[in-house]
UniProtKB/TrEMBL annotation:
It comes from the Bacteria. Pfam families: ABC_tran. Keywords: ATP-binding, Nucleotide-binding, Transport. Residues 23-255 form the ABC transporter domain. This is ABC transporter ATP-binding protein. GO terms for molecular function: ATP binding. The keyword Glycoprotein does not apply. InterPro entries: AAA+_ATPase, ABC_transporter-like_ATP-bd, ABC_transporter-like_CS, ABC_transporter_ATP-bind, P-loop_NTPase.
Length: 286
């Protein structure tokens, strides 16, 4: 495994993993059985690829199947049809080298900040002392030096997110899966956390699938934005985001003319789907 220093100083080309970090979703369809015994199609023929080291955001109206897609990429659930391949191999269980971040913090309340961040390396069999040194280093990177011995309930929402980010990235994942990770934060904290995520991602360059309902966040962070249709979810359009990197502050990039142009284009595509999903819920037929 590359040492932390290699990861921090190596060139981007060295950091972008080989093909093992490619995620290929093809013809993905997922059906659920409703409590009434009817078949409900949540996803219909979804296909897109995330290249190694690419940051891919997925936007779509609520209920369109974004989280369902991720549960199949992560191996927590199986497709009804189609496939998900990671590094050319079909996903058939929880895949090595994949880390997650969700909207709710997955921190253990009875463990300290250090204890929470330590868990990944300890599970992977890294000797305790080495794991501790690495956890302290990651806590420093996310700005939490001095908070190692606190418990999650003693931290603000933003600080808990930093701990979750350190806990996900300490494993140096090939693939990082994020399901509305900053969705519960206030606007300013969210912008700060997004900027920090970008800085850390640029250091270790995992392939990222980042789900959000916030279009600004998607454009500010991603190389590509996948727009999904309202339920049953399928891919409506894919946009390449050609804003240069490093992007710097997420708050400031929003004022760039190119950002505004891309944001408008994508919103044109997304608006119709959001309206359709809303009309369906408002009509009580969802
Ligand atoms: N295990 C399940 N059983 C039945 N229906 C489900 C299940 N998981 C998700 N769904 C349904 O699939 C649709 C998509 O859900 P989800 O992927 O959570 O949407 P999103 O994350 O885009 O908001 C929703 O209508 C949801 O109710
Ligand atoms: Mg969801």
């Amino acid at each position: 495994m590359a040492s932390r220093n290699d990861a921090a100083t190596g060139s981007v080309a060295e950091k972008i993993g080989p093909d093992s970090a490619r995620v290929e979703i093809s013809g993905l369809t997922k059906r659920f059985l409703t409590p009434a015994g009817e078949v409900f199609t949540a996803l219909q023929d979804v296909s897109f690829t995330v290249e190694p080291g690419q940051f891919c955001a997925v936007v779509g109206p609520t209920g369109c199947g974004k989280s369902t897609t991720l549960s199949m990429v992560s191996g927590l659930d199986r497709p009804s049809e189609g496939s998900v391949k990671v590094g050319g191999r079909e996903v058939d269980g929880v895949t090595d080298g994949v880390s997650f971040m969700f909207q709710s913090d997955a921190l253990l309340p009875w463990k300290t900040v250090l204890g929470n961040v330590l868990m990944g390396p300890v599970f992977r069999g890294v000797p305790k002392q080495k794991a501790q040194a690495s956890a302290r280093d990651w806590l420093r990177r996310v700005g939490l030096t001095g908070f190692e011995d606190r418990y999650p309930h003693q931290l603000s929402g933003g600080m808990r997110k930093r701990v979750a980010m350190a806990a996900a990235l300490i494993n140096e994942p090939k693939i990082l899966i994020m399901d509305e990770p900053f969705g519960a934060l206030d606007v300013q904290t969210k912008a700060i956390m997004s900027t920090e995520l970008l800085g850390l991602w640029e250091q270790i360059r995992p392939s990222v699938i980042f789900i959000t309902h916030d279009l600004d966040e998607a454009v500010a962070l991603a190389d590509r934005v996948v727009v999904m249709t309202s339920s049953p979810g399928s891919v409506k359009a894919i946009f390449d985001i050609d804003l240069p990197r490093p992007r710097g502050s997420v708050q400031e990039i929003r004022f760039q003319p190119r950002f505004i142009e891309l944001q408008h284009q994508i919103w044109d595509s997304l608006r119709e789907e959001v309206e359709r999903a809303y009309a369906r819920t408002a009509g009580g037929t969802a």
